[in-house]
Amino acid sequence: MSTSSLLSRRLVLSGAGKLALSAGVIALLGGKETLAANMAGGSNDVAILNVALSLEHEAIAAYQIGAESGLLQKPVLDVAVLFQSHHKAHRDALVATVEKLGGKPVAPLAADAYAKSSKLNVAAIKSQSDVLMLAQRLELGAVNAYLGVIPSFGDSALAKISGRLAADETMHYTALTQALGGSLPKDALSYGA
Q1: Percent composition of the chain: helix, strand, coil (DSSP 3-state, to 5)
Q2: In a domain, 21, yes or no
Q3: Are 125 and 69 in contact (CB under 8 A)?
């Protein structure tokens, strides 16, 4: 599953040992199985943040692809650009935090690498609805990822930030669902299961 963001983007992590599980979960939820395997038992804050940063880069690229596709009508294009700006702010906060912790922030891939990514499946995008469905899928993945890592945090402040970000991503997902003419979930407790 590809996600637009998986960990708090405004946080300064503490206690790498307390977050070992969440790093692996984040990596797995981000479709980074190899990274998850390499992180088992040796997680640290910078590695966790860089996984989230790589996913922010992917989300920014996905919104850019949608914006440049020529498929989005003006009001929808404005919303896509707004959501992309949120992801850019998250990216900037993650970069600053990684650097503050003495790490090297992971760089984004080249734009064509994202365009060729099987996870984004850009070749299948033929309409505005296709662009919106890609964004919707990424945002729902982010909602579930943020909610999924909350129990892994030993620090309640990190859990709170993850919950706030899940709420933000839920807003994105809901707006996209409404734009697609979808309905709200009929069942309670629809997210994070």
Answers
A1: 65, 0, 35
A2: yes
A3: yes
Domain coverage including residue 54: 16-179
Number of separate helices (H) and strands (E) present in the chain: 7, 0
Among 128, 112, 105, CA closest to 61: 112
Whether 189 is in a domain gets the answer no
With respect to residue 1, please indicate whether it lies within any of the assigned structural domains.
no
Q: What CATH number is given to the structural domain containing 93?
A: 1.20.1260.10
pLDDT in tens, the chain (193 residues): 333 333 332 222 323 333 333 444 444 344 444 444 444 333 446 776 777 778 789 889 999 999 999 999 999 999 999 999 988 987 887 788 778 778 899 999 998 899 898 888 899 999 999 999 999 998 888 788 778 767 765 556 556 666 777 888 889 899 999 989 998 888 898 888 7
End-to-end CA distance of the chain: 15
Cα distances (Å, whole numbers) of residue 55 to 127, 132, 180: 24, 18, 24
Tokens of 98: 């990684």
Q: Report if residue 83 sits inside a domain.
A: yes
